[in-house]
Automatic annotation (TrEMBL):
Belongs to the class-V pyridoxal-phosphate-dependent aminotransferase family. SerC subfamily. This is phosphoserine transaminase. GO terms for biological process: glycine biosynthetic process, by transamination of glyoxylate; L-serine biosynthetic process. Its EC number is 2.6.1.52. Its cofactor is pyridoxal 5'-phosphate. Coiled coil: none annotated. Gene3D superfamilies: Aspartate Aminotransferase, domain 1, Type I PLP-dependent aspartate aminotransferase-like (Major domain). Pathway: Amino-acid biosynthesis; L-serine biosynthesis; L-serine from 3-phospho-D-glycerate: step 2/3. GO terms for molecular function: alanine-glyoxylate transaminase activity; L-serine-pyruvate transaminase activity; O-phospho-L-serine:2-oxoglutarate aminotransferase activity. Keywords: Amino-acid biosynthesis, Aminotransferase, Cytoplasm, Pyridoxal phosphate, Serine biosynthesis, Transferase. It comes from the Bacteria. Residues 1-21 are annotated as: Disordered.
Length: 392
């Protein structure tokens, strides 16, 4: 039982390691929202100025080209991805990549809801990537940059052709602000505020290249589009969406929170600072994994390890003797034990992912807190193993 195992003495100062919504930035408090434009119309001069500032600061930090559009849209990253797929897909064959649960959700949308006929699925199990060399860029391509539930990211953009005929539509919600996005290789990028900058939920962001805008203005999809998905009117892009005129009413508290996160990002050196913090968190865990006799990365290759959604699997020979149900129970027990100790909140694996742990390593997480957490993982595993071994 865990009572006879001595727990570590040092705890993380901030035990928030959830993969979404994610930890608030260091030093955050609700006082930072006191200048929010609450009780006012988001279409007022002051409200629109706040929304425009989010757009401008985001584009500047991320290095988004001047001729790309960035808009704030409803329903978080999910809404942004579906907005893109429902509005853009159908004029060309489609290659869709899936190697974890959210990628599978987009497959369901394409096959079960949009019912596209000419679709090629490139699939891989948790821990791996599909064969990127097989992607046909004469087709449209839908893929994730980083698998939030698998901890597997694409290593680079070398596999994406510059002279592609189709559009590349990239769900990058757990990558943007923590990884370098090659904008010239990407036609649609979606993300939400609640990931790397630790913003509040329900607001998505969609980034469109000139090629994506051209498709929107030249292609009428053979399906009805809900108002929340419409980006054109009379065959022309609704430019206001990308200048602060949001499709629906945003939370001005969330807008203020997004501004706070963006200003913090600027204060630590912008995108290089954000990437550096996230990569340092990954390296701290990698150093620990090298010494561990029970834990390893779920990602099979070093170059595909995520620096945000860091997913671990259990490789102890004892663990391998358990049934899948017992392995899942072991993971849950560890997560609950760490939460009870107020050491780590919300680090159980995603419900459809393999048993293990998932630790958010985005830029708002301090490396000192990651380092403080790691001995507790050893304690939790040893404790659960001792408990289960006595009854299994």
């Amino acid at each position: 039982m865990s009572e006879h195992l001595t727990p570590p003495t040092r705890k993380p100062t901030v035990p928030h390691f959830s993969s979404g919504p994610c930890a608030k930035r260091p030093g955050w408090s609700a006082d930072k929202l006191q200048n929010a434009c609450t009780g006012r119309s988001h279409r007022s001069a002051d409200g629109k100025a706040k929304l425009t500032e989010v757009i401008d600061r985001s584009k500047n930090i991320l290095g988004i080209p001047a001729d790309y559009r960035l808009g704030i849209v409803p329903a978080s990253d999910t809404g942004a991805v579906e907005m893109a797929m429902w509005s853009l897909l159908g004029s060309r064959p489609l290659d869709i990549l899936a190697w974890e649960s959210f990628g599978q959700e987009w497959v369901k949308d394409v096959t079960d809801e949009l019912k596209l006929a000419d679709v090629r699925l490139l699939k891989a199990p948790y821990g791996s990537l599909p064969s990127l060399e097989e992607v046909d860029f004469n087709h449209d391509v839908v893929f994730l940059w980083n698998g939030t539930t698998s901890g597997v990211r694409v290593p680079n953009a070398d596999w994406i052709k510059s002279d592609r005929q189709g559009l590349t539509i990239c769900d990058a919600t757990s990558a943007v602000f923590a990884m370098d996005m090659p904008w010239d290789k990407l036609d649609v990028v979606t993300y939400s505020w609640q990931k790397v900058l630790g913003g509040e939920a329900q607001h998505g962001v969609i980034v469109l290249s000139p090629r994506a805008v051209e498709r929107l203005e030249s292609y009428q999809p053979p399906r009805p589009l809900p108002k929340l998905f419409r980006m054109t009117q009379k065959g022309k892009l609704i430019e206001g969406i990308f200048k602060g005129d949001t499709i629906n009413t945003p939370s001005m508290l969330c807008v203020e929170d997004a501004l706070d996160g963006l200003k913090w990002a600027e204060s630590i050196g912008g995108l290089p600072g954000l990437i550096g913090r996230s990569e340092a968190n990954l390296q701290a865990i990698a150093k620990w994994v090298e010494q561990s006799n029970w834990a390893d990365f779920l990602s099979e290759k070093v170059e595909t390890r995520s620096c945000t959604s860091i997913c671990l699997k259990i490789v102890d020979s004892w663990f391998a003797t358990l049934s899948l149900e017992q392995q899942a129970e072991c993971s849950k027990k560890m997560a609950k034990m760490l939460e009870k100790q107020q050491v780590a909140y919300d680090i159980a694996p995603y419900r459809s992912a393999p048993p293990g742990l998932r630790i958010w390593g985005g830029a708002t997480v301090e490396t000192d807190d990651i380092e403080a957490l790691l001995p507790w993982l050893d304690w939790a595993y040893a404790s659960v193993k001792a408990e289960l071994a006595a009854v299994v």
